[in-house]
Amino acid sequence: MRIAVVGAGITGLCVSAGLQSSGADVTIFERSDDMRPGGSGLSIFGNGMKALDYLGLGARVRTLTDISYQGKYVPYASRFVGGLRSPNGSWFTRVPAGQIEGLRVVERSDLHAILSSAVIMDSVRTNAPVIKVTETGKITTANGHFDSFDLVIGADGLRSVVRSCMPFDTGVKYAGYSAWRGITDQPVTLNWEAGETWGNGARFGIAPLSDGRVYWFATRSGKLTTGPADIRGALLDEFSDWHAPVAELITQTENIQYLPIFELANAPKSFIHGRTVLIGDAAHAMTPNLGQGGNIGIEDAAQLVHCLADIADAPHVESTDLFKRLNSYDLLRRPRANRIALASRRVGRLAQASSPLLVTGRNAALRAVPSRVFRNQVESVQRWELTSI
C-alpha cells in the first residue's frame, strides 16, 4: 500500500513506524522545515505504553523513564506520592507512591527523537504543508506537488487540514482557560511529592522526569488573550503564595510556553471519509485534564496499524477490503476517544471552578473521596486492549 501520513508529530511517527514495519510504502508530509517538536513534557500512562509495545517502541521509551529500584526497573514517576492538593499544600486526596504503577513522564523532544529514529528518514518530506486532500486519496501541497495514495492518514493535530477537507468538520473552540508549561533547567527537589494543586480558577501540576528535572504546568481561567509579555512575572504574581516548590519551579525554568486551550467544537461524526482517516488530535483534540490526549493518539496509531497489518505490504488493495478495515477502526476508536474527551472536559470544568461557593463545595467533596476511589478513576481510563477485526 502507498500511504501518506500528514504530520510528523508523536502520533504521526507512531503510525508511520508501525506501518513501515508491516511493509507499507509510507510517505510522511511535515509542514515545518525540520522535525523539531514543540511542547515540553508528556505523561504516558499504562494504555499508552501498551500501544507503544505493540508498535515495537515501548522498550526504547522505557530507557527514558525507568530506573532501577529494588532489583527491577520501574517508572521513576511511580515512586512519587500523587493526588490533589490545595494551594496551602494540604492534600484533598493522596495516592501513595507505587499505587499508579504505569505512569511515565517524558520530555517531548526526547520521545520525538526516539520515534523519529524508528521511521525511514527518506520517507519524510519536510517543508511540505498539505493544503488539500480528497476522499479518493489525492493530496496537494503548498508548493504545488500532487500525488495519489491508497490511504491518507491525517495526523496533523488540532487544526487539521485533513479534517477540514472532510464534510463533517466543525472546527475548534476555546475551552475557557489557558496553560503555561515548562521544564526546569536543573533538577529540583520535590520531596517525593507530585500531582496537581487546585485553587480558585487556577491549577498547578508537577511531574518528575527521570533525570531530576521537573515538568510542570499552570492554568488560569479567563478570556482568550495572547498572554502576558512577562510570563514569569505574571505566573509568580499568581502562584507565589502557593505551597513549595511551585514558585521555585517557575523561577528555575527559562523557557515557559503559553498555550490557550482549545478542543474540537463537536465530536466528528466519523474518523474516516473515503480513503482518508484521522488519528490523534486531528480526530479528537481534547482538553489536557486527564493527561490522556497523547495516549489516546498512540492507541489510535496502534489500532490502525493492527487493522491494516494484513494488507499493508500488498501492491494493490481492493477498495471494499480497505473500507471494511477503516470502518472497523472507526467503530473501535471513536466511542472511546469521544468518551475520554467528554470526561476530560468535565474534569476541567470542576478543576477550573472560580465561584467561591463552587470551589468550597468542590474542595469538601474532594476531601471526602477515599484515595482508592481517586486511584480507580485514574486507572479506569487506562483500561484498553488492542482489538482484532
TrEMBL record:
Key word Plastid present: no
Domain called FAD-binding: residue spans: 3-340
Pfam families named among the record's database cross-references: FAD_binding_3
InterPro entries: FAD-bd, FAD-dep_Monooxygenase_BioMet, FAD/NAD-bd_sf
GO MF, one annotated term: FAD binding
Cited Gene3D superfamilies: FAD/NAD(P)-binding domain
Keywords: Monooxygenase, Oxidoreductase
Protein name: FAD binding domain protein
UniProt organism field: Brevibacterium mcbrellneri ATCC 49030
